[in-house]
Amino acid sequence: MRQRGIRHSLCFMGVVFMVLTIIAGCADSEPTWTTFVGSAVEKSFPIPKEAERTETAMNNSKMDYVHYSLSGLSESEGVPEAYQKAITEWGWTEKTEESKGTTRVYKKDKLIVQLTIHDNAFTVLVPKIEQKAVIQGLESP
């Protein structure tokens, strides 16, 4: 009878351990900031591989943007140093005169990207550049 109680206790402790392991594995974890992939709206702009796309607006006449969730980000702390380093390594430079609050503006060649940090999320926005067509008149000989 005593052994049966011990077996039940061991079985119960094993189940509790498995449940705790599963819960710990599913909990939010801090990003590693070691692996980056191209953003959905601008492939040459890095985003952490752990980021999960939650919303996308493509083919808008004024902008394209994508919103990502990523635990560990803080609006008050801004762009993490490791992320800023990756952005620079990918060839982007910050336009500090245009950056305001939680939004940072980056430029690479003729491309502009706005990165806005939120609590546990961020948004990558690519404004569309207006291209005015030049109409040339026909000259008669």
Automatic annotation (TrEMBL):
<protein>
    <recommendedName>
        <fullName>Lipoprotein</fullName>
    </recommendedName>
</protein>
